[in-house]
Amino acid sequence: MTALDYVKNQNEESAYILYNNYFDNIRETIRNSLTQPKSPIDLGPEEQQRSESHYNRGYSAFWNKNYKLALNHFNNAIQVDWKKPYYWYYRGLTYLRLGEERKALFNFLFGSNLETLSSYDIRSNVSHQLIRLQGNERMFLEEIRTGDPSNMLLQKYINP
Predict the structure, then answer these.
(1) Taking CA 132 as the corner, what is the angle to CA 127 and CA 137, rounded to the nearest 5 degrees?
(2) SS3 for 76?
(3) In b/e form, how buried is each residue of 83-92, taking b as 16+ CB within 10 angstroms?
(4) Structural domain range at position 59
(5) What is the pLDDT of residues 12-28, one digit of tens each?
(6) What is the pTM of this model?
């Protein structure tokens, strides 16, 4: 049972509390992992270059409508360096274009929480990476990036 399914089975007041608690837990987990002391397996220049290379190839495949190839590259980029929010956003957009809305939503939410806890440099780079994205997909993603202030996601997935 997914978290959204669990919340869906609760009464409306409990659903809002569980919904907020769920994302508070995700945010705390990300915060803890970002503030851990550096380990010997932190990314070196080669790994950073490899993750960016996969991201760039995925980005190109995405805009050329080769979504399966794009997904493969975004998966590889995230596997090498999971701390870049725009990797998660583009993987989510790819899932969205492949019709896998729940997987897209997870990636958007994870990327959003990661972006919130990232440095200014990373946050400003996210906006630059998303500049080409327009229309309904951009509006949907921006709603998530701003914290779902209208509870759009809650209304769509919990109270259909």
Answers:
(1) 85
(2) helix
(3) bbbbbbbbbb
(4) 47-157
(5) 566 566 666 666 767 67
(6) 0.71
Tokens of 61: 């495949």
Query: Comparing C-alpha atoms, which of 58, 59, 51 is closest to residue 130?
Result: 59
Contact (Cβ atoms closer than 8 angstroms) between residue 92 and residue 105:
yes
What's the mean per-residue pLDDT of the chain? 78
Q: Which sign does the torsion angle of CA 84, 86, 92, 97 carry? A: negative
Residue 94 in domain: yes
- Give the H or E element holding residue 59: helix 45-63
First to last CA, the chain: 17
| CA 39 to each of CA 44, 115, 121: distance values in angstroms, whole numbers, following the listed order | 11, 22, 22
Counted domains in the chain: 1
User: Amino acid identity of 91?
Assistant: R
In the block, residue with structure tokens 């080769």: 66
Q: Alpha-carbon distance 122 to 115, whole Å?
A: 8
